[in-house]
Structures are given as structure tokens and as C-alpha cells.
What we know:
Blueprint: H1 11-36, H2 46-55, H3 57-88, H4 93-124, H5 132-165, H6 171-189, H7 191-195, H8 201-223
Organism: Roseovarius rhodophyticola
Protein name: DUF4386 family protein
Transmembrane segments: 15-39, 59-85, 97-124, 136-163, 175-194, 200-223
Amino acid sequence: MDEVVMPDRFAAPRIVGAVALAYAMSMFSQNMLFGISGAPDYSDSIGLVLTYHAENRGVLAVAFGLEAVNMCLLLLLVTGLNGLVRRSGRAGADWSRLAVVGGATLSALFALTVATHIAVVLAADGLTEPTPAFELMWHFHAAVFALALPALGVTFIGAALAAYTGGFTRTWQRLLGVTGGSLLLLAGLGNIAIADGSPLVLLGVLGLFMWLVWVAATGLRLVRM
């Protein structure tokens, strides 16, 4: 009789942890590209927006390419976390399912955010001054990003509570998740203000930073299990 090989129950957390670390690194690299290239804020003049996108097409192409990687890694992360929590036999399955639904919604909204951003880059090619269509596309991009913030908040809270309840993270990571997720939800309530250049977007940026910290810390903890 052939020997039945049982899966290593210690391998799954390490795999999910590796996915989390890869996702954190990819997100960090993408945001670094935006920062180093001097990406404009939503409060900047439309003329500055046009100049930036006309002069940084190559850098933006790399940043947009990373979004495809981010999307895949995010879906793998929330799905893998859901599997870990369910196999642990502990509470938290409902939170992990919420994280999966939130992650799927977030992936779709981030994809649309990047798609509208690509349209802005293409529209900037050859323009010497902003047109109403160009400005409209920029505001459309900002509006989709603002709507993505509460989706990230739901994903963050669901993942943080699921991982903690399942016994995979510490108390401070749960607190980080609830706090960061709440900031993202609050920022999402002011979506029209954010799309119009309000500094309320800083709440979302802070929440996004806390999300990356949580993902990296959780990834390190899982790979050490």
C-alpha cells in the first residue's frame, strides 16, 4: 500500500506569512515610486497634475504594473488567512469571511483607481494645457480612490480580528487593525471632500500606513510559526 503523505500543518502559516511580506514589500515599493517622483496631491492645481503625468510616464508605468501584483497578493492573503482561521478550529471565521469579501471589493476598487490613473497619463500625452476632459478624469480617479478607503477599512478590521481571534497575532496588532480600519472608514465618509482635495485624505493615508505595518508584522509572525 502506498504511503499517504499528510500535509504539513506548519507549512500553511509560513506560506501565508510569505505572501503577506511580499504584499507589504510590493505596496511599499509602489508608494515609494509615487513619493520619489513627486506625485501631486488631490489639492494641487490641475496644471501641476498635467505636468507631472506628462513627465513621469515611465515611473508611473512601473507603479501601475505593481498594482497587478498587489491585487493578486491581496486576494491570496485574505483567502489564505481565511483558511488558517477555519483550520485552527477557533472563533474568527466570520471575521475572516468579512476580510475576504472586503479584500475582493478592495481589489476591484484599487484596479479601477489605477485604470482611471492610467487614463489620466494617456490623456496628458501631447497636451500643453489641461482640458475639461482631463480634469474630469483626474477627479474621477480621486473619487474612486476615496471610495476604496472604506473597503480597505473593512478588510483591515476583518483580517486583524480574524487573525487575533484565531491565535495568530498579538493584542497590539488587533488594536492597530481596529484603529487603522476605523480611520479608513471615517475617511471614506468624506469621499466627496477627498476627491475635491480635502486634507481629510491624510486619515486615509495614515490608515494605509497602519495597514502596511500590520501586514508586515503579521507576515513575520506567521513565517516564524
